[in-house]
Structure formats: structure tokens, C-alpha cells
Amino acid sequence: MAERRLEWRLADLAGAVDWPPPPDVRAGVRAAIARRRRRRRLILLVAAAIVATALLGGAAAAASLGLRGAIVQQVPALPSPSAGRGGAGAGLDLGDRYRSLADAERAAGFHALVPAALGQPDEAWYRPAPGVLTLVYHPRPGLPGAGATGVGALVMEAQATVGRSSFVKLVPTGSTLQPVTVNGGQGFWISGAPHAFFFYGDPGSSRTDSFRLAGDVLIWNQGGLVVRIESALDERGALRVAGTVRGSAVYQRHEVVARVCRSPGPAGGGVRRPASGRSQATPAARCAGRPGIPAGRRRLVLPGDRPPDRSGGQDAAGGDTVA
Amino acid sequence: MDGELVERARRGDAGAYDEIVQRYTEVAFRTAYLVTGSAADAEDAVQDAFVKAHLALGRFRAGASFRPWLLRIVGNEARNRRRATGRRATLEVRAARLEAAGAAADPERAAEAAADRRALLAALQALPDEQRLVVTCRYLLELSSEETSAALAIPEGTVKSRLARALGRLRDLLEEPRDG
After folding, report:
1. Do residues B57 and B24 share a domain?
2. Which CATH number belongs to the domain containing residue B23 in this structure?
3. Cα A7 to the chain's mean position, in Å?
4. Does residue B9 sit within a domain?
5. pLDDT by residue (tens digit) across A183-241?
6. Contacts of residue A14 in chain B, CB cutoff 8 Å?
7. Distance from CA of B24 to the nearest CA of A (A)
8. A183: exposed, middle or buried (Cβ count in 10 Å: 0-12, 13-18, 19+)
9. Of B34, B51, B85, which marks where a domain is finished?
10. Which residue is closest to A99 within chain B, CA to CA?
11. In this complex, is the C-beta atom of A27 within 8 Å of any C-beta atom belonging to chain B?
């Protein structure tokens, strides 16, 4: 009886509420949709131009800068990320949120590579077009909130096929692009000025993701995926987290400790040179012959990193053995 | 009806999407208003939500209910705006008609009803945010459990448990007798 009385009172109140009048947003919606269509067309054109440049005019640069299935391209300036209403930071635009990582993985059709250092994500998202699985970690001690996104870390993963450029990241001049090797895969540490990115698929079915600002990013290839970690962590912190990403397809016992091989990269283009004092401490020969690391380039072992264990089955991060 | 409109909009019929926008603006705006606590932010959130929904129409599952799908997008946009402004979600419902109904016919009873409503509004304001949002979505907006779950991005089970706790708290605040 009491329950019904309270419900009756609430229903009575609902009839008395004086809501603000709803706006007529039809014209605004139409205009915004038209703007986004124009912007997407422009992005497609820019993407096509970049890919054409990379594939035709800059094969050498693409070879040294390209991740497997991905291209990182430096450009003089970015298309404005705030062209749309609300700006790029208004939402993370990660697609659909799933109740569990397993559900998101089912939707994505591939297993996520989870950094053991971060553990299971607080949220799992998947965006079918262009096929990006995102693990969201809330801020916590040791994982501060990133300014642009307010989350502790975003780990984004997309399937990339060899020979197909499925992920493009535009890096404006002023930011720093540092080639690194993470768990045997080629990658980059991109820091400094804000940068934008988008994914797209096969030629003919291309679909761009909207630009948005991102914090410092570590991006690399592992296990047939392009993996990127975006967070407020510095390079060393991001590399340590990346070193705990397990991927059976590429993971070898002797690769369980995060190791970073730095290379000078191509001349110019804002690529940071390695710190010579640290690099000289490690024999260059140790990097020779490994995938993505041309012979003669220097390898840097970060202070605190364990040297590679080529005999045992345990790693420094907690004894994980990889089949 | 929704399914046909959605299908037409998906095929690029701008008029069909206009009709969808018109049909759902009120519930979308009120939902966003409850979450953001600001009519201006709610308007922005609703407009952005309709734009994003249009872009995502291709992923809308045929045969599914459109309203909860849309309210999920609206809720996300509204929460993003609330986070961006750092504003606490407050219920600023203007109950201008508190005393209007029946005032002429039976002034004494109308005054009693108005006092009842004022007390209920005050009790709602005293609830924790998460409980107040569930109660207002379910009773003031008359959303279903599924729609409330979608708009607030919480599981339906959580909607029910929060609602039960909120109603219990309201009864305590209003000093209503409990069943049993």
C-alpha cells in the first residue's frame, strides 16, 4: 500500500513538472551531418594523398617509418579536430561498450592483447567501423588521468594485415616521433604536440574515423595487431606497460622483458635522435638480425630493465611462460 | 513504424531522419537535462547525439527498439558534457504547476496536494545522484527499465536495485509507513 502511495505521488509529480521547452534541433542536426560528411570526404582525400605519397613517392620513407600494416606520417599541420560541433574532445567515440572484455572480443572477432601491468580493463569498447577494440582503464595510483581524455589509459587495438595500410596516424611537426621496438615489434613513441589519427580499411571500402586529440602514445605491432597505448605515462612508463602485453603469436621466451631499440630514423622530419651516452653503453650487435631492427642500429636498455633471459622460462614481470 | 523510418533514413532519406529527430527530441532532451542539469548543455548533447546516431544508423539492429538505442547515445553525450563542465547533476525541476490543479474547486485540498508535491521534490533532491537519476528517469520521464538502463549506462539489474533503495529512502524521508 505504502509502495503504491509513493508511486502514485511520483506519478502525480510527473504530471506537474514544468520541463524546459524542448529545442528544435532539426536544422542544427541537418547542418552538422552535412559538415561531417564534407569533413569525412576531405579526410578521405587527405588519406588517399598520404597513402599515394607513401606508396609511390616515398617508398623509402614508408619502409623506415611504417609499422607493419600501418603508416605514421608527419605532416606540416593537422586538419582542425574541432571542426565539428563540440570539438574532438567532446566524446571518446569508441563505439559500443560491452559488459565484458570477452563480449567485446567476440564482437571484434579477435582476442585483445592485455597489458598484465594494467590487468583487466575497467571498460571494454568496440567500434565495428573501422574495427577498433578499446580497453579503458580508469585513473588510479600510478596511472594518472590523461588531460585530453580524463581516463587513466586507453589501449586501442586493430587488426592489421601485412601489406595493407589499415592504420594511419598523422603527426604534426613539433611533436616527437621516436622509433622503438616493443616486444620484438616495430613501433613509435609519439609525444609532444597533440596529434590525430584515423583508421581505415581496404581501398574502395575505406572509412575514416573522426580526428581527435590524443595524449602521448606508444604504438607498435604485436600478434597481428596494431596496438596503441595512450596515457599520461612518460615514455619509460608506457614502455614498461607495453612490455607486459602478452601476445602468443609473437611472444618468445626471450622477449618477455620490455626492450627498447632506438634508431636514428630517417634524416630530418622531427625525429628525435637517441641519447648517445645511453645508447653507446649497449653493443649494437645485440639488435642485429631481429625483426624490424636493421643491423648496426643501437639498442638501449633502460635502467632497471633486466637483460634478456635466453635460458629460463620466467620473466622479470612475474614468471609468465609463453607457449 | 520506427523500423520503417529508420530504414528510410538509413537509405539517405533526410526527411525520414527529420521525422525521427522531431519524434524523439522531447524525451532525448529531458533525459539529457536530467543528466546535465542544464538546458543549454542538454540541447547541445541532444543535437550531437542525433548527429552521432545518424552516423551509426548502419549499426542499428533491424527489429530492435529504437528508443533505448537512441537514449544510450543521448546519455553518453550528456555524461560527456557533465564531465567536461565538472557540474554535479542536480535536479532543478520547476514545479510551477504545483498548486494549480484544482485550486479553484477545493482550495484546502489543493494546498494540501501542493505541500505534498513540495515535500516529495525536496526528498528527491536529498537522494544521492545515482538514486535520484533512476527515480526521475523511471517516474518523471516514465522511461522503461530498459530505457533507463540504456540512458544511464548501467545494467537493468542495477536500475532495479537502485530504484528499490531510492524508494525506501524516499519513504523514510517522507516518513511514509513501510509495507509489512
Report:
1. yes
2. 1.10.1740.10
3. 48
4. yes
5. 877 777 777 655 554 444 443 433 444 334 456 778 777 877 778 888 888 888 889 99
6. 139-142
7. 10
8. buried
9. B85
10. B155
11. no
Beta-carbon contacts below 8 Å between A and B: 121
User: Residue B80: which of A1, A33, A90 has the nearest Cβ?
Assistant: A90
Give me the CATH number covering residue B117: 1.10.10.10
Q: Is residue B8 part of a domain?
A: yes
Q: Write the pLDDT tens digit of every residue in A237-294.
A: 889 999 898 764 333 322 223 333 333 333 333 333 333 333 333 333 333 333 333 3
> Would you say residue B91 lies in a domain?
no
Q: B85 to chain A: which residues are within 8 Å by CB? A: none
Residue of A nearest to B41 (CA): A86
B113: containing domain: 107-174
Q: Does A90 reach chain B within 8 Å, measured CB to CB?
A: yes
pLDDT digits (tens, 9 = 90+) for A33-56: 888 877 777 776 666 666 555 444
B145 touches chain A (CB under 8 A): no
Are residues B78 and B24 part of one domain? yes
Which residue's entry shows cell 582525400?
A: A45
Does some domain include residue B17? Answer: yes
Give the number of other CB atoms < 10 A from CB of residue A319.
Answer: 10
Return the domain boundaries, chain A. 30-256
Residue with cell 604536440: A193
Number of domains in chain B: 2
